[in-house]
Amino acid sequence: MEKSLREICQENLLTKKYLIVPRLALGHQILEEISGEQTWMNLEVVTPLSLAKKIIEFELIREGKEILEQGEFEGQIEEIIRDLQNRGELKYFSVLQDRESLGPLVSPVIRELRMSGVQPENLAPGKFVDPVKGKEIKKIYQAFNSYLEKERKADEAEVLIKATLVLEKGGVEPGLFLIPEDLEVLHLEKVFLENLGSDKTRRLKIEKLQGLERPKGFFY
Q1: Of 43, 81, 142, 153, whose CA is between 20 and 30 Å from 102?
Q2: 148 Cβ contact list (under 8 Å, min separation 6)
Q3: How far, in Å, are 12, 77, 81, 95, 171 from residue 102 at the CA level?
Q4: How far is CA 166 from CA 55, 57, 60, 159, 173, in A?
Q5: Could you give the 3-state DSSP secondary structure of residue 211?
Q6: d(C-alpha 38, C-alpha 32), whole Å
Q7: Rounded CA gap, 41 and 124, in Å?
Q8: Could you tell me where the DSSP H helices lie in 116-186?
């Protein structure tokens, strides 16, 4: 049965609780709104990614890997496109490059592919509206994966995959995980959250908090 954030916190006052939100800034806004209530003791705001980082931070240190932040992600895609263009390996994106920066345009596509668990070898350029575009997306994706391996970087997708493997082996963080009923997530985030375990998760019904607007994909 779904309960409100207030009800769950009142029932589990001394238990460590993680409120899962799409953006940390939004979570901090919530905490400011409810900061005067004792009910909110032991409540920490996390995103699926920040929680996954918490679970595997020591594993990444052991492996000598650094997390690739979102700003770096976009910049690296831009650099890959520039490098491929200089080598004359792009046609579709070469035309666009003359008109605008392609990092912000292409990086969301690569991120969505990675967050969906789709690898370059599974991409069929012929299924794209423009097969040339599909071929070049595949080439950019392959170059990005090579960059991650060479530079020992872990992007959002890899962090979530590694954290999910830890959860599958029983390595769950102590506490309760509070998940909004309409939280919008991508495939790897969904798999990660599902592996937190039904006994450790609580689904939140929508509850309006005074003074806060309800953004798309969240709750109050």
Answers
A1: 153
A2: 68, 154, 155, 158
A3: 48, 8, 8, 11, 40
A4: 8, 11, 12, 11, 10
A5: coil
A6: 13
A7: 51
A8: 131-151, 156-168
Report how far residue 81's alpha carbon sits from residue 178's, in angstroms, rounded to the nearest whole number. 40
Which amino acid is located at 37 in the chain?
E
Which pTM value belongs to this model? Answer: 0.84
Q: Look at residues 189, 197, 21 and name the one whose alpha carbon lies nearest to residue 117.
A: 189
Kindly provide the residue ranges of all beta strands, DSSP E only, lying in the chain, ordered along the sequence. 17-20, 43-46, 66-67, 153-154, 176-180, 201-204
Q: Which amino acid is at 175?
A: G
Residue 36 in tokens: 């005067």
Q: Which residue do the tokens 């009923």 mark?
A: 181
The CA distances from residue 104 to 71, 98, 159, in Å, are 10, 15, 22
| Model confidence pLDDT, tens digit, residues 104-138 | 889 999 999 999 999 999 999 888 889 999 999 99
